[in-house]
């Protein structure tokens, strides 16, 4: 980042290549529609470029990048909330191209508390350390740890039906996942 | 059966996430190795993570248009705007703030130590001229045979009119404060005139580091230019930013006069001042002593710090807690006691700082007395009139003595005369009749 700050184009290309996928994944897992995720990933990089002269490496660049992404994400969510006529935005993205396994995980995640879900996703998908998550969400590291544990335990409970299904059909994982998805959807409808 | 103590499940999770410190990590690994229960938890946690990884996202196609535009803008901006050295420098400063603070602190301590403590050592190496002067000083502290060869300089400057020219015994204590004031004024004036060359006197802030030594010196001189001694002494004090603590000049006609002074001189200038004062006459005796009070000072500081903390805690207690009136009163009494202690210790510290900053020099300057030949003996008339006055005075004195004697003893003499008169007369008559027969 410092190299890019001093004007190096290849440095930015390197940054872009390294974080493009994970940043897109960040938005994709949190928002409806891949088009919007692409746009927001792009906006994040644009923000990085524009703010390059003010960049101060107080933390890892990764944390910096995700803090920009988090800001864009919350702005996007606010915008959706405003635009939505029903005033209700589902944090569960549309499942048009998701596999059943993904859909089912999504639903399990959706049942978690917002803050716990965010911590868990940052840890599992963005692979951030406890310290980075703490810095990003502006909370103590110990809180991050205990919430992460709680969310994992809660998720285990939500995932339990899937396990049971899988146990009944250990030879066919895909089928098991499909069944789990159906079951979860049924559960969602009930709830 | 022994009860197994399981580590905190969160800790096991942190271990799996690689977020545990090395020592705890080892302990957790050891425990998992032989605890089936925890192995189950570990496999559950791993299972959750693996399950979550099943949610895969298709490769990203991040559009580059806006990014390219932004990059182009950025390039233009970096060409027009000066490079980001400033922000990088700011970052460097901010990042190393603590290191800078430490380095600055160390530098300040070094400077203070260098400027306060071993001035006498610096004097010995600072210049050749000073070396010579120092040598002279050493010679002077040797027996007086050497001191006699020392050239006694005449008073260096015309003396300003003294406050009182009377040679009789006088106490100048009242002048001490005026002298101090003058010294301060001179010091201020000197620093205004030439701030770089003039060394400021040791202040209390400078006392805070290095060995803390209370220096005391005794000096006894004999001078044949006694009249100038006091003014010269004051000039020397002025130059070294010292002040007079106490000054007495005494002596009677026909014997030598003596000046006794207690002078307070900034500790780092004591040697220079001594050297100059010694030039006022012949050194009879000289002694110097230094009392190291570092440990007392540090101890005092620590006790002061403790008491301040106690005071703060008590104040917080009073402010934050509510309780019985008796408890509140008790805390207030304790607070008053602690505050009293703090004030006492602060006064003690101030005194000690002053003693460290200002060395005490007890100087005695004695006149080299030469008996004067009486050039004009008194005239005959004066002698006659003196004799007449003396005669008259002794006559008056005699009459007065007799009158006083009669008045004081007369009554008792009369009484005894009355008592003894008749027996004595009877006795006398009997004695006369015996001789007649």
What's the short version?
The complex is a heterodimer of chains A (191) and B (437). With 191 residues, chain A is mostly helical.
Could you please describe the fold and organization of this structure?
The complex is a heterodimer of chains A (191) and B (437). Chain A has 191 residues and is mainly α. Chain A has helices spanning 2-5, 9-30, 34-50, 61-83, 100-110, 114-124, 130-137, 141-168, 173-190. Residues 87-96 and 169-191 of chain A have low confidence and may be disordered. Chain B is of the alpha+beta class and 437 residues long. Helix content of chain B is 63%, strand content 12%. Chain B has helices at residues 9-16, 22-34, 36-52, 65-80, 85-95, 97-116, 119-126, 128-140, 144-147, 173-193, 204-207, 226-239, 270-278, 294-320, 325-357, 380-436; strands spanning 170-171, 213-223, 243-250, 258-266, 282-292, 358-367. A 6-stranded mixed beta sheet of chain B has the order 1-3-4-6-2-5. The longest helix of chain B has 57 residues, at 380-436. Chain B is elongated and about 175 Å long. The termini of chain B are far apart. The model of chain B is unreliable at 81-86 and 119-207 (pLDDT under 50). The chains are: A mainly alpha (191), B alpha+beta (437). Chains A and B meet through α2, α3, α5, α6 and α8 of A and α1, α3, α4 and α5 of B.
């Amino acid at each position: 980042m410092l190299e890019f700050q001093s004007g190096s184009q290849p440095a930015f290309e390197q940054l872009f290549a390294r974080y493009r996928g994970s940043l897109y994944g960040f938005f994709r897992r949190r928002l409806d529609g891949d088009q919007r995720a692409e746009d927001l990933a792009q906006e994040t990089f644009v923000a990085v470029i524009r703010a390059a002269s003010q960049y101060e490496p107080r933390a890892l660049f990764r944390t910096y990048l995700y803090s920009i992404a988090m800001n864009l994400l919350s702005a996007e969510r606010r915008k959706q909330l405003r635009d939505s006529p029903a005033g209700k935005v589902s944090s569960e993205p549309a499942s048009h191209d998701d596999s059943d396994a993904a859909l089912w995980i999504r639903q399990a995640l959706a049942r978690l508390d917002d803050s716990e879900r965010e911590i868990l996703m940052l840890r599992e998908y963005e692979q951030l350390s406890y310290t980075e998550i703490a810095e990003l969400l502006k909370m103590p590291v110990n809180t991050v740890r205990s919430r992460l544990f709680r969310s994992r335990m809660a998720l285990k409970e939500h995932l339990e039906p899937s396990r049971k299904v899988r146990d009944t059909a250990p030879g066919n994982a895909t089928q098991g996942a499909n069944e789990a998805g159906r079951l979860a959807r049924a559960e969602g409808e009930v709830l | 059966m022994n009860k197994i103590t399981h580590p905190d499940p969160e800790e096991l999770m942190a271990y799996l996430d690689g977020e545990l410190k090395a020592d705890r990590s080892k302990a957790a690994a050891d425990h998992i190795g032989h605890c089936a229960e925890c192995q189950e938890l570990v496999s559950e946690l791993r299972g959750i993570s693996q399950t979550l990884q099943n949610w895969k996202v298709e490769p990203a196609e991040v559009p580059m248009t806006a990014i390219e535009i932004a990059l182009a803008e950025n390039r233009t901006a970096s060409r027009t705007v000066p490079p980001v050295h400033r922000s990088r420098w700011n970052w460097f400063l901010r990042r190393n703030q603590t290191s800078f603070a430490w380095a600055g602190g160390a530098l300040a301590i070094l400077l203070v130590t260098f400027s306060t403590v071993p001035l006498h050592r610096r004097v010995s190496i600072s210049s050749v001229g000073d070396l010579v002067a120092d040598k002279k000083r050493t010679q002077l502290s040797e027996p007086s045979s050497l001191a006699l060869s020392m050239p006694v300089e005449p008073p260096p400057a015309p003396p300003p009119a003294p406050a009182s020219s009377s040679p009789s015994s006088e106490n100048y204590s009242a002048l001490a404060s005026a002298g101090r004031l003058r010294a301060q004024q001179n010091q201020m004036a000197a620093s205004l005139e030439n701030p770089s060359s003039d060394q400021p006197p040791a202040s209390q802030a400078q006392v805070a580091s290095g060995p803390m030594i209370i220096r005391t010196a005794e000096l006894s001189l004999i001078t044949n230019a006694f009249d100038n001694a006091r003014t010269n002494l004051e000039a020397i004090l002025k130059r070294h930013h010292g002040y007079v603590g106490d000054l007495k000049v005494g002596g009677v006609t026909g014997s030598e006069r003596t000046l006794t002074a207690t002078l307070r001189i900034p500790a780092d200038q004591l040697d220079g001042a001594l050297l100059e004062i010694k030039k006022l006459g012949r050194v009879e005796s000289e002694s110097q002593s230094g009392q190291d009070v570092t440990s007392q000072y540090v101890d005092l500081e620590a006790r002061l710090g403790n008491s301040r903390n106690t005071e703060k805690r008590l104040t917080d207690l009073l402010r934050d807690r509510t309780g019985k009136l008796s408890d509140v009163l008790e805390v207030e009494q304790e607070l008053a006691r602690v505050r009293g202690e703090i004030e006492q210790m602060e006064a003690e510290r101030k005194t000690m700082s002053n003693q460290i900053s200002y060395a005490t020099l007890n100087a005695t300057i004695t006149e080299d007395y030469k008996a004067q030949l009486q050039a004009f003996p008194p005239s005959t008339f004066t002698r006659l009139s003196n004799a007449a006055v003396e005669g008259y005075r002794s006559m008056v004195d005699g009459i007065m003595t007799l009158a006083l004697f009669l008045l004081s003893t007369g009554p008792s003499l009369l009484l005894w005369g009355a008592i003894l008169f008749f027996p004595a007369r009877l006795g006398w008559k009997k004695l006369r009749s015996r001789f007649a027969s």
